[in-house]
């Protein structure tokens, strides 16, 4: 059961999008919510359904969910398969949850893009003028994982004497079924295999068709060790 907040006249909404700065935004929002002793909400919006997200994006969502639980957020809101503009969705969520403060990351638009296409911040201010905004600067030198993996495909893990091997056709020896995300730029089956185990999403590293020890090649992908 969540602890009752002392103040209900303030509510914080953190808006996150793919990239390494989402975690930073959630931590900033949690800090403000703790100081004000008020509810915290975390929101992400995507036009794709959740089950069509690639390995990097789903890993970010999983991590944001963990952080939301860790910081005792009232709700981690995933608006997937969303056809409305992100600004409209943020405004809807803000009104629904009586949000008074919103935390967003600084966009990487150039001045010319802002002139020709409009500032995301200005559009938000027109949609929800009753909310205070905190714009957190983002380090543009930090790169995300976009482009590191090909689109996921159905695959299976088969157990043998040495551990687990990946296969792409089903057999009665298949122990786990999931999605394999192959690293780009390689002819070998290297990448990430993602599957459900004990009602929890697991990610393991694959090198040359075999499950290996967890790596830290991609810090946002929380790889685990698969025990026999």
Please tell me about this protein's structure:
- The structure is a single chain.
- This protein has 228 residues and is of the alpha/beta class.
- The protein has two domains: 125 residues, HUPs (Rossmann fold, 3-Layer(aba) Sandwich); 59 residues, no CATH class.
- It is 25% helix and 28% strand.
- The strands form two sheets. A six-stranded antiparallel β-sheet has the order 7-6-8-9-10-11, with no helix packed on it.
- The chain is elongated, with a radius of gyration of 20 Å.
Put the structure in a nutshell.
With 228 residues, the protein is α/β, with parallel strands linked by helices.
Task: Furnish the topology, listing elements before pairings.
Blueprint: E1 12-15, H1 21-36, E2 40-45, H2 55-70, E3 75-79, H3 86-96, E4 101-105, H4 111-117, H5 120-127, E5 132-136, E6 153-160, E7 163-167, E8 174-182, E9 191-197, E10 200-207, E11 210-211
Parallel strand pairs: 1-2, 1-4, 2-3, 4-5
Antiparallel strand pairs: 6-7, 6-8, 8-9, 9-10, 10-11
Helix pairs in contact: 1-2, 3-5
């Amino acid at each position: 059961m969540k602890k009752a907040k002392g103040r209900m006249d303030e509510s914080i909404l953190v808006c996150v999008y793919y990239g390494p700065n989402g975690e930073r935004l959630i931590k900033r929002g949690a800090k403000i919510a703790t100081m004000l002793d008020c509810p915290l909400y975390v929101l992400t919006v995507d036009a794709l359904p959740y089950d069509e997200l690639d390995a990097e994006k789903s890993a970010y969502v999983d991590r944001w969910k963990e952080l939301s639980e860790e910081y005792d957020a009232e709700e981690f809101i995933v608006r997937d398969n969303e056809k409305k503009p992100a600004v409209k969705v943020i405004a809807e969520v803000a009104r629904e949850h009586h949000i008074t403060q919103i935390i967003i990351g600084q966009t990487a638009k150039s001045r010319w893009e802002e002139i020709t296409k409009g500032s995301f911040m200005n559009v938000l201010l027109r949609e929800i003028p009753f909310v205070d905004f905190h714009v957190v600067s983002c380090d543009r030198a930090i790169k995300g994982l976009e482009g590191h993996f090909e689109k996921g495909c159905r695959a299976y893990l088969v157990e043998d004497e040495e551990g687990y091997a990946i296969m792409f056709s089903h057999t009665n020896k298949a122990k786990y079924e999931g999605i394999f995300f192959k690293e780009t730029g390689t002819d070998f089956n290297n990448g990430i295999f993602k599957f459900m185990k004990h009602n929890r999403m697991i990610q393991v590293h694959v090198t040359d068709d075999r499950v290996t020890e967890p790596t830290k090649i991609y810090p946002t992908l929380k790889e685990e060790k698969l025990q026999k």
